[in-house]
From TrEMBL:
Residue ranges occupied by any HTH gntR-type domain in the UniProt entry: 17-85
Coiled-coil segments on the chain, per record: none
Keywords assigned by UniProt, alphabetized: DNA-binding, Transcription, Transcription regulation
An example molecular function term from Gene Ontology annotations: DNA binding
Pfam family, one: GntR
Domain of life: Bacteria
Protein name: GntR family transcriptional regulator
GO BP field: negative regulation of DNA-templated transcription
Amino acid sequence: MSREQTPLEPLSVASSQPLYLQIKSALAQRIQDGHYQPHERLPSESELMKVFGVSRITVRQALRDLHGEGLVFSVQGKGTFVSKPKAMQNVQRLQGFGEAMVPQGYEASTRVISVQEVRPPQEVAEALGCKQSDLVIELKRIRYLNREPISIDHSFYPADIGRPLMGRDLTQDIFPLLENEFDIALSFADLRIEASLAGTGEEQYLNYPVDSPILKIRRLVLAQAGRPVAFEILSYRGDAFQYHLRAER
């Protein structure tokens, strides 16, 4: 059925749910079922006021809630648009990319850019507990969700761990490989999350414009004995990915 044949339904004045929440729910449902596509403009505030018979304040409260949930974004002078859905990974669990994404129904894949022995930059040497004169294994990969590039994974491993990896299929998740084939029991990871801007590397590999928002993760993975196993710099497209955590008081 076309959109013209499925107009927005009137609000229920008998409902205990506030009018703005009814509007928000109606619009959210249309976004989630694909009636409104990513980057498509929603009806204007005036159009929504007319359809639902409510004030501008009520419409704006509904749109604010949609903004808060990341379902829409606004462009000054042009209106409100549907956001591209973002994949989500829970930082409370130490998982590889595929381990986290596949159970959510995504098709996850990987392309290896390079794997080589290098002298580590100072940041990497400090994280792995080695000297800058030592050799480490550097692995660069592009990660894809539903065949669209979503991140650049830049990983470093101590030489004795990384060299055996060089002969393996590195398009798969590394964590299960370390645990199941190399008998390295992983324990936890320290993460630092920061906002950044895309550079020429992200533009080239992620098809993402320079100066667009990037979610940059620095992740130090440690074995149960406390030894650093990997130091990773993960650069995610800001329009396509989010991390989730729960903070208890």
